[in-house]
Specification:
The chain is built from ten helices and 15 strands. By secondary structure, it is α/β, with parallel strands linked by helices. The protein has a six-stranded antiparallel barrel.
Amino acid sequence: MSVTVTRALGLEQLPDLGPAAVCMGVFDGVHRGHQALLSATRHAAQAAGATPVALVFDPHPDEVVKPGSRVARLSPLDATLRMIGESGLARALPIRFDNDLRQLPAEDFLAALAPQIALRSLLMTPESAFGRARGGTVERMRQHGAERGFEVVVLEPLLDGDEPISSSRLRAAVAAGDLATVRRLGRPAYLQGSVVEGDHRGRALGYPTANLAFDYLPAMPPRGIYTGRVAVRERGVRPGHPSLVSIGVRPTFHEGGEVLVEVHLLDYDGDLYGALLELDLLDRLRDERRFDGADALIAQMHEDEAEARRLLGSG
């Protein structure tokens, strides 16, 4: 089970996969609703003797429909593909979403998958629709499938309470700092960034931090202090390493400024500059606030560390 393609492809660049059961979407965050769809795709593929395939649209279609807009993401493309692979799906293919693709009728889009992908099953939800003017509804695809030799498998959306589990709902929970709901609906709130050099303020305070720079717009929780678990795979930091995380503008030393994400890895003192750091945010310890000098801040950081260790079971 591997995912090897990490850049969005044009339809003319698809690999030859043969008979396939296909689901499609953005899969931002790969939450429980996505996981149910991926599982149903695997079962449909097994029944049809086909390969299960997820078509992952990138960039987010809303950014194409509304030029100049940006959608905060629960997971960047490479992480989304990895999460899909970890769910057990054989192949996840990122498909470049642009105005040309947006204007394709649903039938033409499915035809463009052939011959590399020979559609045997198409997974949809009752409200699914794709293609130009969202013309590819379940009813229309069932008619088209009867003519073209594929079945449409309809999966009811997974509910949490009375509401469907959706990426937009998770983004709202992240923005509200409701990390427990984020975890319940899928997986912990996730950030991924490159470690860049800062002003070494944390090291001077006894808490060296990895400062993150992002090449995507991440869904960000409110400013504050959090517990987290990190991985820095290229430096041997395995997933799950306990950490203390600051998200904010460091008001004790600055007035205003950009919001920084700074990660202090507990019981670690290696060089992480230039490496890719993956962060699961778990618990919100407190709001960010201004202290009367470095000594008061350090005293609070000791308290934060003790609470983080308690919650994370790390010493």
